[in-house]
Amino acid sequence: MRSTSKTVGVVAAVVVVAIAGAIYFAKFSGRAANELNLRLEWFVQAQFAGYIVADRLGYYADEGLKVNIRPAGPDLKPMTTVAAGTDDIGVGVSNQVALARANDVPIKIIAQIFQDSANRYVLLAKNRVDNLMNLRGKKVGLWLGGDEAEFVAMLATAGMQMSDVQVVPQGFSVAPFLNGDYVLSEVTVYNELLEIDDTIRGKDTLQVLSPADYKCAIVGDMLAATEKTIRDRHDQIVRFLRASFRGWKYAIENPEKAVDIVMAANPELKRDEQVSQLRAILALITTKGVSTDDIGVMKTEDYDTTIRVLRQSGQLKAELHGQDLYDDSMWNAARR
Known about the structure:
Blueprint (H helix, E strand, L loop, with lengths): L7 H17 L10 E5 L9 H8 L2 H4 L3 E5 L7 H7 L4 E4 L1 H9 L4 E6 L6 E6 L14 E4 L6 H8 L9 E4 L5 H4 L5 E5 L3 H9 L5 E4 L12 E5 H6 L1 H20 L1 H11 L5 H16 L13 H13 L16 H6 L2
């Protein structure tokens, strides 16, 4: 999950890399019968390797499809463009679909790529806690605007509320955390956590808190479409999923080659960072015993957890159930 808050430097960097990715993945104004627009959640990087591989190795073409892979950024949200009909399929996180449906936006998940939350909450060794109650009164760095939901639910397991800690709205630089501005920082396993690990290697160690350990994980990257698109383009989506799963399977079995393909799509990236990112991404895809034959599997209990966490954080009031968030008919058809 990502916050909308950015420093000027981060925005500039994102714009440069997003433009580089857009050079390869051009935008298209119209869509033919077998043409689909896929909106990524961020700029072109290893986080989306499966789709990039499927495009570059011709897996979409094998299915008779033309897939326009389109980058996003801090002010461009996939669930918004999907809801508006600009894009057919978007990469996002399950809480976004729950909140959309609570506001009568008819979006459904069609494949759950990550089987765990991508978020972690880290502390340097000297600030290690034995219980979340040890954080009472301490400064914690979080992404706000909705991204704090898991942490709110985690605190609730210890009988605590957000008012029991001092929340510091954080950006995407890890420097304030390393400088001691706050004792705990929210990070993603494929980005900030890797940067922190690289910076402190040989000097310090981290305590890493996972929301899954508190039964508060909002499962990460998924694919979503409107109910209208699901109805009108059901066959195309089945073929899109089949090719995408093939791309992810290739990335799992050939991670170095997959990174080469991502680098060719966006040469502005740093290869060593992309190798580490892909490794973290693949761990999220294959966790919980998910095999390459089950990539994208959707589980009602995961979405029940998403809904509960959103309720605990005060973000969701509507009556929703896990089965309301997804349609697995295309996933099942794609695996045949």
